[in-house]
């Protein structure tokens, strides 16, 4: 049994009176002695009872980071390069975890993430927000971002400034821009500053108004020659890869053979050095009735699975099947017993007292008025006493 102990019981003093001067002192339950700083728990045992956005462990954690040298080695070996778009943290995370070589923050996010009509509506600030989100998720893949319309066409200097922002503020490793021969000086200026450029030729969506819509390019001899000239021009300007969109597969294959850098096809046949698709399209994230280009193969039905899951959640909530015990946090019987004894109390804001709707052990009769401070002292003292009895 303890012969002596030094215990200072601090009580929460509720300021119920409208006059603060009646309560000049403030109390707390903190003991009046120094407390050692709390050591952080090991990462593998850290518990967090809230929603948050960790990367988590994936099967791809052990793979090396993809660099330009990695892509060049793959190209020389004839190993196809995989590219997939991402527009936020989850889409970037899953693309990286699935082993994509390149993750592209495409301006297609204007439609698939922001609900816009076409890519021409998205602006630099929009792209930067999405870049930062994707860059936080992608740990291994090489990241590239589209320069949006209006951020690079005025001059090579404007393009360089935009590219620098994408790297410094967006966390990207390279930029993509649309255009062929006419954009060669711009590509050269950006690459001279040390920022890699992926050139986009063939169908250039940002210019769909001037080319008569989203039409296949290079179907005629003259059209195919133009695509070839564009490819050679951007290569000589320093582009490290060339994206070829909506061009007949045979034409794209012949152009690929003429180049010294990889080509990434989208609707350009299997003869390119690699392939890219918009993640939202190939996963079936939108309703199946939504239009997608001919070159899109749908590999999953995320829309259907999402509808099924949400409808099941709705049924569980309506039937009160969710949340069951396994999805709720426990409380000790003693704590629950004490809480039950004061549940139903209503604070009288004017008098600063508690009116008990249900009987309380300290009340003489139901409905007694009990001073809140005395009530808290009673509970606090009982808990301290019980604690010492357990130790004895």
Task: Summarize this structure briefly.
The chain has 392 residues and is an alpha/beta fold. It is 35% helix and 12% strand.
Task: Classify the secondary structure makeup into a structural class.
Answer: alpha/beta
Spatial shape: elongated
Please report the total strand number as a whole number. 11
Mean pLDDT across all residues, rounded?
A: 83
Explain this structure to me?
The protein is α/β, with parallel strands linked by helices. The chain folds into 2 domains: 20-44 and 331-391, no CATH class; 68-297, Phosphoenolpyruvate-binding domains (TIM Barrel, Alpha-Beta Barrel), CATH 3.20.20. It is 35% helix and 12% strand. The chain contains 12 helices and 11 strands. The protein has helices spanning 68-77, 89-97, 109-112, 124-137, 156-168, 184-192, 221-237, 249-258, 279-282, 302-318, 333-342, 372-391; strands at 81-85, 102-105, 142-146, 174-178, 197-202, 241-245, 263-266, 274-277, 345-348, 353-356, 369-371. Strands 1-2-3-4-5-6-7-8 form an 8-stranded parallel beta barrel, surrounded by 6 helices. A 3-stranded antiparallel β-sheet has the order 9-10-11. A hairpin with a 4-residue loop joins β9 and β10 (353-356). It is elongated. Residues 1-36 and 363-369 have low confidence and may be disordered. Belongs to the PanB family. Keywords: Methyltransferase, Pantothenate biosynthesis, Transferase. This is 3-methyl-2-oxobutanoate hydroxymethyltransferase. It catalyses: (6R)-5,10-methylene-5,6,7,8-tetrahydrofolate + 3-methyl-2-oxobutanoate + H2O = 2-dehydropantoate + (6S)-5,6,7,8-tetrahydrofolate. Its EC number is 2.1.2.11.
